[in-house]
């Protein structure tokens, strides 16, 4: 019972730390600032003709944006997920929920994740730590989580650094690739793999694709450092020091996108990690990502109000449309092929 209570407490503490403490990377950035669009002063297009619609894993989206996986398992998380899902439905955005492990261990908290009734048409992503496949979770549990959420996709998140810094973290990652491959074969929905802010390298992406993973979210370095989050939470000096030592560990988001695209031109790819606005999102898309994911900006807005989430989406869409207009493109595919993004 104490372990279950500890998990719920950890969920609440994660939210508090992310909202109140300095948990951003100190020196490492997303790498997107190293790129600049070539300005087109006479685009010869009407902004009203710009079309941000796209598809991802067979689902139609109103814009290439993902409300990245964040939370669940507490009453505040229920409120956050409710507000995010309502807005996601209105704008037809993709949305992920936080790790659902707690819903397996405390079934009465499953409703804090359940948002399908509010967002019947969105691309909705269930979520479980891949390492839990070594701690009692298998096909049956994954099916249960997908069914609970009525999800279109299951995310398996990879977080070895976070587990190392987290007090009593789950650090047995042995043999997971073969278990992921088996899950990809047997689960009736696509399996997507993501990091949690330290990035996925091209060689690792290649192995994951060969294992049958349907999509990848690079979740690169440059945004929230979960080593710093866990360091802030740690009760003992060793764990606090470990988190600070590895606070800047990881592969920048831009590097993840470009390196993975070189070896896998067609894998559905999400860019997250340090994306703060629609211009960052446009750069990530031009580099080869299919969607841009944001977490902390959506979390901060959702804690404030549903209207704050709506306002954030409007800002992001306006910034994306402005980037397209000022590079002379009306569609995302044109932006990707335009060559307008240059490294500086």
UniProtKB/TrEMBL annotation:
Q: What is its main location?
A: cytoplasm
Q: Name one GO molecular function term.
A: isopentenyl-diphosphate delta-isomerase activity
The reply to whether Signal figures as a keyword in the UniProt entry is: no
Q: Where in the cell is it found?
A: Cytoplasm
Q: What does this protein do?
A: Involved in the biosynthesis of isoprenoids. Catalyzes the 1,3-allylic rearrangement of the homoallylic substrate isopentenyl (IPP) to its allylic isomer, dimethylallyl diphosphate (DMAPP).
Q: Which positions in this protein are listed as binding substrate? A: 10-11, 99-101, 162
> GO CC annotations?
cytoplasm
EC number(s)? 5.3.3.2
FMN-dependent dehydrogenase domain location: 177-338
Q: What is this protein called?
A: Isopentenyl-diphosphate delta-isomerase
Reply yes or no: does the keyword Ribonucleoprotein apply. no
- Pfam families given in the database record: FMN_dh
InterPro entries, A to Z:
Aldolase_TIM, FMN-dep_DH, IPdP_isomerase
Single Gene Ontology BP term? isoprenoid biosynthetic process
Q: Which cofactor does it need?
A: FMN; Mg(2+); NADPH
Question: Which top class of enzyme applies to this chain?
Answer: isomerase
For the ligand (Mg(2+)), the binding residues are 163
Q: Where does FMN bind?
A: 68-71, 99, 127, 194, 224, 274-276, 295-296
Q: Which organism is it from?
A: Gloeothece verrucosa (strain PCC 7822)
> Catalyzes what?
isopentenyl diphosphate = dimethylallyl diphosphate
In which family does this protein belong, per the annotation? Belongs to the IPP isomerase type 2 family.
User: Which SMART domains did the record assign?
Assistant: IMPDH
Q: Which keywords accompany this UniProt record? A: Cytoplasm, Flavoprotein, FMN, Isomerase, Isoprene biosynthesis, Magnesium, Metal-binding, NADP
For this protein, the record's CDD domains field holds: IDI-2_FMN
Q: How does it assemble?
A: Homooctamer. Dimer of tetramers.
């Amino acid at each position: 019972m104490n372990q279950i209570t500890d998990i719920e407490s950890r969920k609440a503490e994660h939210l508090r730390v992310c909202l109140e403490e300095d948990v951003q990377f100190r020196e490492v950035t997303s790498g997107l600032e190293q790129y600049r669009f070539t300005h087109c002063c006479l685009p010869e297009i009407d902004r009203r003709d710009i079309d941000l619609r796209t598809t991802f894993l067979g689902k139609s989206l109103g814009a290439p944006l993902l409300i990245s996986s964040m939370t669940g398992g507490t009453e505040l998380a229920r409120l956050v997920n409710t507000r995010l899902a309502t807005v996601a439905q209105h704008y037809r955005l993709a949305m992920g929920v936080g790790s659902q492990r707690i819903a397996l261990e405390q079934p009465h908290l499953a409703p804090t994740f359940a948002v399908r009734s509010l967002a019947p048409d969105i691309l909705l992503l269930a979520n479980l730590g891949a390492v839990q496949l070594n701690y009692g979770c298998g096909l049956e549990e994954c099916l249960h989580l997908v069914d609970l959420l009525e999800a279109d996709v299951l995310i398996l998140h990879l977080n070895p650094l976070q587990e190392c810094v987290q007090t009593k973290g789950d650090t047995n990652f042995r043999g997971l690739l073969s278990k992921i491959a088996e899950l990809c074969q047997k689960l009736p929905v696509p399996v997507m793999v993501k990091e949690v802010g330290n990035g996925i390298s091209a060689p690792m992406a290649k192995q994951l694709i060969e294992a049958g993973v349907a999509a990848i979210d690079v979740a690169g370095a440059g945004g929230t450092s979960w080593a710093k989050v866990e360091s802030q939470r740690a009760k003992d000096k060793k764990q606090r020091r470990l988190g600070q030592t590895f606070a800047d560990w990881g592969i920048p988001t831009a590097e993840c996108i470009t390196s993975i695209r070189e070896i896998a031109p067609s894998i559905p790819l999400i860019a997250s990690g340090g994306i703060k606005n629609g211009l960052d999102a446009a750069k990530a898309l031009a580099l080869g990502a299919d969607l841009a994911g944001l977490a902390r900006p959506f979390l901060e807005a959702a804690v404030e109000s549903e209207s704050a989430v709506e306002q954030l989406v409007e800002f992001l869409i306006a910034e994306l449309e402005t980037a397209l207009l000022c590079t002379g493109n009306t569609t995302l595919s044109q932006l990707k092929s335009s060559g307008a993004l240059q490294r500086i």
